Amino acid sequence: MVDRSLFIEAMRHVAQSVTVVTTQGADGCTGATVSAFSSLSADPPSVLVCLRSDSRIGLAVGRNRVFCVNVLPEGASALAGRFAGRFDAEEPDRFGAIDCRHSRSGPVLSGATAFECTVDQIITHGSHDICIGNVTAITNAATPPLAYMDGSFHIVRPEGAS
């Protein structure tokens, strides 16, 4: 096994899209900033997100059996911070005063490209659940995504662009 600190240091240099995963249902409405998101298959259209098993969002997705992955657009770092819990002491309602629409899977945040999903499988690995979702609806904002790497937010530009 590789040393944990070496793994974390190497992962700091991997750029990730910044997403907010939301869910709503009998277990309520909640959301959290998540970077572990990926497309899985086009046949059937499916994605996966990795959520800490004991987190509020992880537990809620497990019970609600639906989730929505909102890929944040560049310039949305304050929204990412809000759903990371940075302002929970001042504003415990993460959805208060933000622009979103509610869907069966969870809130769709304004300006985000969103993948609404029903849970197909949840696989536990270590401290996290790998949540595989079948995509039931898409909101394609067609905007450049916000990225995160080495402890800070970045914007994505084609190589050679100024």
Describe the structure.
The protein has 162 residues and is mainly β. It has a single domain, classed as Electron Transport, Fmn-binding Protein, Chain A (Pnp Oxidase, Chain A). 15% of the residues lie in helices and 43% in strands. The chain starts with a helix and ends in a 7-residue tail after the last strand.
List the keywords.
Pnp Oxidase, Chain A, mainly beta, 7-stranded antiparallel beta sheet, globular, 3-stranded antiparallel beta sheet, 12 strands, Flavin_Rdtase-like_dom, NADH-dep_flavin_reductase, monooxygenase, Nitrilotriacetate monooxygenase component B, 162 residues, single chain
The string of secondary-structure elements, in order, is HEEEEEHEHEEEEEE
Widest sheet: strand order?
Answer: 3-2-6-9-10-5-4
* Sheet with the most strands, sense and barrel status: 7 strands, antiparallel
Query: Which fold does the CATH topology refer to?
Result: Pnp Oxidase, Chain A
What is the CATH superfamily?
A: Electron Transport, Fmn-binding Protein, Chain A
Structural class: mainly beta
Backbone shape: globular
Which stretches are low in confidence, meaning pLDDT under 50 for 5 or more residues running?
A: none
* CATH structural architecture: Roll
Helix % is 10-25%
CATH C-level class is Mainly Beta
Average pLDDT for all residues: 94
End-to-end separation in angstroms reads: 42 Å
Strand content: 35-45%
Tally of strands: 12
With helices defined by DSSP (H or I, 4 residues minimum), what is the helix count?
A: 3
Q: What's the gyration radius in Å? A: 16 Å
Tell me the domain tally: 1
